[in-house]
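Quick one, T. Sequence first:
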Amino acid sequence: MAFVRVGTKSDVPAGTVRVFDAGGVSVCVANVDGENFYAVDNLCTHDNGPLGEGRLADGDVECPRHGARFDVKTGEVRAFPAVKPVRAYAVRLDAEEISVDVG
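Structure tokens:
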């Protein structure tokens, strides 16, 4: 595993997503409820829209371009027009630090 520190819990308020560079990989980190953090690719598989600029609702991140939605835990497609999932990454929390496994 290749965990890369990307930020702190306070960088991603509850109910939001933020974009980080994890060793050259652009990831969208989601804070679902203040305790559970997840990471997926920052690019929508429909047209490379920036998922980190989207909104988080019910555990899904919605692409701001065309409304495709992805489960932040698994990367699974939840709403069209996307048909391919995004890659999901393991997240490790160490006190306040967030690390993402991009290996």
